[in-house]
Amino acid sequence: MVPQTSTLQAQSSASPTPSPQPSPPSTALANNPTPGQEANSANQARCRDWLAWALETLEAPASALLLDSLSELIWSTVTGRGRLFHNAEHILHLAEGDDPLCTLAALFHDSIYVQVDWGLAPEVQAHLTPFLVWHGGALCLRPAAELRRIADSACVSLLFGLDHGEPQPAERFNEFLSALLAVQCLKPLLPQATLAELVVAIEASIPFRSTAQYVPSEQLYKRLSLANQRFELGLSPGEVEQAIHRAVAFANRDVGSFSIADPVIFLDQTWRLLPELTPALRNPGQYSIQDYRTACAGWKAF
Length: 302
Fold this sequence. Notes:
mainly alpha, globular, 16 helices
């Protein structure tokens, strides 16, 4: 059965109502803006519940031990000190719904945020080491040609349209690395076609891209169609279209807080990005006026 949805960010945007559900963890704990250990444990259990439901719905049930391991990994990535917007509350809100692939995309899509987390945690880097290289003293993504030669990243690289010729700073590829982490974690459970559908949903979550030269969803459709042929995924034309529609719907929900009409809720949600993207502002009383002005200028440009 589908885990019960909570009232997390209930005022932000509507989410699909799942079918009959078991009793959820206490919503009072889940909604506590400064959750203690008990509330954090309840929300972490909800993360595990949604993961278990999604995999079971996709006819890929995981053992209790594997569910514990995966949910702990997911939880550790979104509960770092710098995660003020792209945090556990955000992924749990997006995980609610009746589409298991959207739920999995929600749980994994913000796993990697290099500049906010100041790098990669050891348990995450262990999954991604084959795709990374130290270059000029910085953690970088390997050149696209190398990624295409690695079995586990070949399809993901194609779906993201990577074409960089030299190692690039990892912080420019957060969504790509999040998708790779999802594939690495779930490949023992899900077929490659399902993983490809998951990857396109995560790719679509790259926000605020210009549409002056091309429409991102149309390019994603072309890349999924090509991957379907090249990797013999076995998706029908209708399934390819459905995957793109799902990806666009998920991406729209991901940035839903930027379209909230109520200015109080809008500011409460979006201004969390200011200290998240400006580490100096996370220490009240210790940042300079210059730090604040720089952050505000960046926010205005955004």
